[in-house]
Write a structure and sequence with these properties.
about 180 residues, alpha/beta, Glutaredoxin
């Protein structure tokens, strides 16, 4: 997790696809900051589909959605469009510096390939139709979700398994009517 006192510095370094710092993006509204796995990962695709389905509800609360990914912005935008997330705000982090700054680690064998992840992976890829694709980024990088409000992390979901599925609406309850 970002050490106290470094939060503003890291938020300033995180520049979105529109050229605005994350700190400025989060200045007037809560931000749902979603660190994705690589776009070829079935759980990354599932997360995009989940957020796409809930986008209107999330944004209707005044919350801005910002994704962090490990590819070039033009590649990322193709995936966002595929999941009906056009014009979404995102940050490219191919070196995973921001992942580390937020305390997101590399996954171990069980976290990435354990029985639970295999079962969920089959369900998400075959049953739900998310499929798998080429690895684009660090295949060992674990994802996470943070809610930032007034420059502070108000809530977080740190994946214990690559297959974990956050409840985005529950995470945002911390910002309701503050």
């Amino acid at each position: 997790m970002i050490p106290y006192g470094m939060q503003e510095e890291v938020l300033d370094q995180m520049v979105t696809n529109s050229g605005e710092s994350l700190r400025k993006t989060a200045a007037n509204a809560p931000v749902l900051l979603v660190f994705l796995r690589h776009f070829g990962c079935v759980f990354c695709r599932e997360a995009l589909a989940d957020i796409s389905k809930r986008r209107k509800e999330i944004e209707s609360t005044g919350t801005r959605i910002v994704f962090v990914h490990m590819t070039e912005n033009d590649i990322a935008e193709r995936y966002f469009i595929r999941y009906n997330l056009e014009k979404v705000t995102h940050i490219s982090d191919p070196e995973c510096n921001f992942y580390r700054a937020f305390g997101l680690m590399k996954g171990n064998f069980n976290q990435l390939f354990g029985l639970h992840s295999w079962i969920r992976g089959f369900s998400a890829s075959v049953v739900a139709g998310h499929g798998v694709g080429p690895q684009m980024g660090d295949g060992f990088q674990m994802p996470g979700v943070f809610v930032i409000q007034n420059g502070e992390i108000r809530e977080s979901f740190i994946h214990q398994l690559s297959s974990d599925r956050p409840d985005y609406e529950e995470l945002l309850k911390c910002c309701a009517m503050d």
